[in-house]
Amino acid sequence: MNDYLVRGMSMDGFVKVVAIRSTEIVRRGAQIHGTTPNATAAFGRVLTAASMMGNMQKVENGSMTLQIKGGGPIGSIVCVSDPVGNVRGYVYEPKVPLVEKHPGKLDVGSTVGTDGTLTVIRDLQMKEPYVGSIQLVSGEIGDDITAYFVQSEQIPTACALGVLVDRDQSVKVAGGYLIQLLPGAPDEVIDKLEEGIRRAGAVTPMLEQGMTPEDILGQVCGDLGVVFLETTEVAYKCYCDRERVTSALISLGRKELEEIAAEGKSFPVECQFCDEVYEFTPEDICEILKKV
């Protein structure tokens, strides 16, 4: 089944909602980077959040970058989403040790850490990108996304994310939701929403039961009801190509390129976001030197 996300509104128009099935996205990310279970769970949550946040921008040719630096063993996590919700990313240290809160429950917070920041960079196709940053709250990602929207963008938000890693270290299910209150929402709506979030519980059990993004939003919103406005297929998608890699090589400068050419052997360049490797022969490097 392909991954997809749904966007909608509560029936009264006071709540904006989005939910996603991101299982294949997380599987692909874990495969590319060879993550161990704790890294898979942390990386998968950031990929999931970035996809939803990127889709919410709706700026043609724009992008949204979500960066986590928590001081934990995983180091940095960086994920980039296009305006559709297609996403790519990387982790600084994919091979982190297994740490559990209790048997069967991975401790994502200790893997990410809390001594650091969550940063959002929005490329809105304007002169300068918008950059917002907050101190991490828990390292569990969902709590931190919630805090980011409240502190940096003053939008009351609830974010829940889940990645279930199976016994064989494969990704069983992944997904999440993001709910935001619009201005003027009465206390009654807030109370119903808070009750719905408590009633629904964690995302992972709902996904494991086979609930769809629509089912999850229906469970969370309860009596408020949901009008679904858009359904969009999303995937792990990298936009690297040989031209972009060549531009990156040019940025190394003449001296370093001359040293590479002098070695007289092929120079492989691997994309940090995907498993694509671009081979450049000494002749290729000499051609690039002509452009410097």
General description of the model:
The structure is a single chain. The chain is an alpha+beta fold. The chain folds into two domains: 4-233, Hsp33 domain (3-Layer(bab) Sandwich), CATH 3.55.30.10; 242-289, HSP33 redox switch-like (CBS domain Like, Alpha-Beta Complex). Helices cover 35% and strands 29% of the residues. The strands form four sheets. It has a five-stranded antiparallel β-sheet, sandwiched between helices. The longest helix has 21 residues, at 37-57. It is globular, with a radius of gyration of 21 Å. The model has no long low-confidence stretch (mean pLDDT 93).
Task: Record the SSE blueprint.
Layout lengths: L3 E7 L4 E7 L1 H11 L3 H21 L5 E7 L6 E6 L5 E5 L8 E3 L2 E2 L1 H5 L4 E7 L6 E6 L6 H11 L4 E9 L5 E11 L5 H14 L2 H6 L4 H9 L4 E8 L8 H9 L3 H9 L4 E4 L6 E4 L1 H8 L3
Antiparallel strand pairs: 1-2, 1-12, 2-11, 3-4, 3-8, 4-5, 6-7, 8-9, 10-11, 13-14
Helix pairs in contact: 1-2, 5-7, 9-10
